[in-house]
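Is this the right way to post structure tokens for a design question? Let me know if I should format differently. Anyway, here goes:
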């Protein structure tokens, strides 16, 4: 079987700021947000018409709302479903339609909020139940520097952008289900603290929030307790209740103490947690980690282009979480200190959720793992996953003997295997057909093949090929 050279892979499936679960560069990149270049709302599109169906009756409202919730919580799967829908010949139009509405709700500058108010005539709106957020979502950037609430009023120092968004969510925040915010200029602890206070003040007006995405990328990595004191001091006082919050994404947070405080506060209600592996590295108390997130069913550890530290896998192998979906992705399997990850550490982390796991996603280069004899002698590792029915990984991992032997032994209940690659030829097709003879429950092998990021001339769109188990005839 032909493998993809690791050197060609310039990036792992990572998160776009505007589409939190959409892999890049494999699926289409959204257009640059430009509020003023868009046509007036409401958009005369299929999506616009569908969203207006909310007002027809309760059943229509529930169908539309549930569909939109899927877009925000797992946009990658939503886009892939549309791509493979044979009745939608122009699937890219759906993406464009959703993007058009997405960027209507990228609310950063005060001018954005004013434009939204004007186009929807909110100042003359008399219906107390009117919902201006068609996708029940807001995406924004909040500048941390600019005011220090403990010295006086939140608005002592003019921050027109914050003030405009604060006014909007104060009036209509109950309609928002998803809030995606990037805290900008958090490079000093006091600035980060100010940004957190601003954020929590806004969240207090979002009582029905289900999905929260926070990114902070420019934090000064201070040692000692200085940063911890700033963050813990304000989180203990201001963390809003958000009783309906179930999805938390802190992959892009570089202030890990903030992520930990949020986890402690919402631990019993969260079902989905997305983080960088660094979050596990900062947690020293294994006893506390085990008790956190008792109802978690989906864990995403996304290290992007950073190496995955072995201690991350060790801690994942120790927690008591009822996971049904586990996704681990990292471009490299070496820590920043050059410490190699052993194959058995990967398998132990996955096997920790053997009894509950339904779907497993491993975007790891297994060839980089150090092979250990324990992979052959530890019978526990090869025990069958009773509920696991889908596996997603790189196609090149089928060339790694220890890994593929484990898949065929422990994952015998698989109904579907999904491979990501840069090509699909007759070689891949025949290799997929051979898998049916070794895995009796396997029904289909799906290939997603994408343009090669190392080849500027490769402009192919994402494509899908499916190899199904031959039907038995009598």
């Amino acid at each position: 079987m032909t493998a993809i050279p690791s050197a060609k892979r310039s990036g792992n499936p990572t998160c776009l700021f505007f589409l939190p679960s959409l892999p890049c560069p494999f699926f289409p990149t959204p257009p640059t947000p430009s509020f003023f270049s868009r046509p007036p709302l409401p958009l005369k599109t299929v999506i616009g018409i569908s969203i207006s169906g909310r007002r027809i009756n309760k059943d229509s409202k529930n169908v539309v709302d549930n569909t939109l919730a899927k877009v925000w919580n797992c946009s990658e799967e939503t886009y892939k479903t549309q791509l493979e829908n044979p009745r939608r010949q122009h699937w890219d139009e759906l993406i464009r339609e959703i993007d058009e509405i997405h960027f209507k709700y990228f609310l950063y500058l005060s001018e954005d909020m004013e434009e939204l108010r004007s186009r929807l005539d909110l100042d003359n709106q008399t219906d107390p139940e009117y919902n201006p957020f068609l996708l029940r979502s807001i995406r924004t950037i909040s500048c941390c520097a600019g005011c220090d609430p403990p010295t006086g009023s939140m608005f002592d120092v003019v921050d027109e952008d914050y003030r405009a968004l604060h006014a909007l969510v104060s009036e209509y925040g109950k309609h928002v289900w998803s809030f995606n915010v990037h805290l900008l200029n958090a490079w000093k602890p006091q600035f980060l603290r100010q940004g957190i206070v601003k954020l929590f003040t806004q969240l207090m007006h979002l009582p029905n929030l289900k999905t929260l995405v926070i990114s902070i990328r420019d934090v000064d990595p201070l040692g000692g307790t200085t940063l911890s004191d700033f963050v813990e001091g304000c989180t203990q006082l201001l963390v809003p209740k958000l009783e309906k919050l179930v999805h938390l994404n802190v992959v892009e947070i570089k202030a890990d103490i903030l992520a930990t405080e949020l986890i402690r506060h919402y631990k019993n209600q969260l079902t989905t947690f997305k983080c960088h592996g660094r979050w596990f590295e900062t947690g020293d108390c294994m006893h506390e980690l085990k008790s956190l997130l008792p109802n978690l069913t989906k864990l995403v550890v996304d290290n992007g282009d950073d190496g995955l530290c072995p201690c991350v896998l060790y801690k994942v192998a120790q927690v008591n979480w009822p996971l049904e979906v586990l996704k681990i992705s990292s471009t490299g399997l070496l820590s920043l200190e050059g410490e190699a990850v052993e194959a058995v550490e990967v398998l132990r982390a996955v096997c920790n959720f053997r009894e509950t796991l339904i779907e497993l996603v491993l975007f790891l280069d297994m060839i980089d793992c150090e092979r250990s004899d324990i992979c052959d002698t530890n019978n526990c590792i090869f025990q069958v996953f009773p509920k696991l029915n889908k596996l997603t990984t790189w196609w090149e991992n089928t060339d790694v003997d220890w890994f593929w032997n484990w898949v065929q032994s422990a994952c015998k209940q698989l109904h579907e295997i999904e491979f990501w690659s840069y090509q699909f030829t007759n070689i891949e097709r025949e290799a997929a057909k051979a898998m049916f003879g070794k895995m009796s429950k396997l029904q289909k092998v799906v290939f997603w093949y994408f343009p090669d990021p190392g080849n500027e001339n490769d402009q192919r769109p994402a494509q899908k090929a499916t190899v199904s188990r031959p039907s038995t005839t009598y």
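Format looks fine. Someone answered above. Worth noting: The CA atoms of residues 142 and 183 lie 5 Å apart. Confidence is low (pLDDT under 50) at residues 1-54, 148-158, 222-226.
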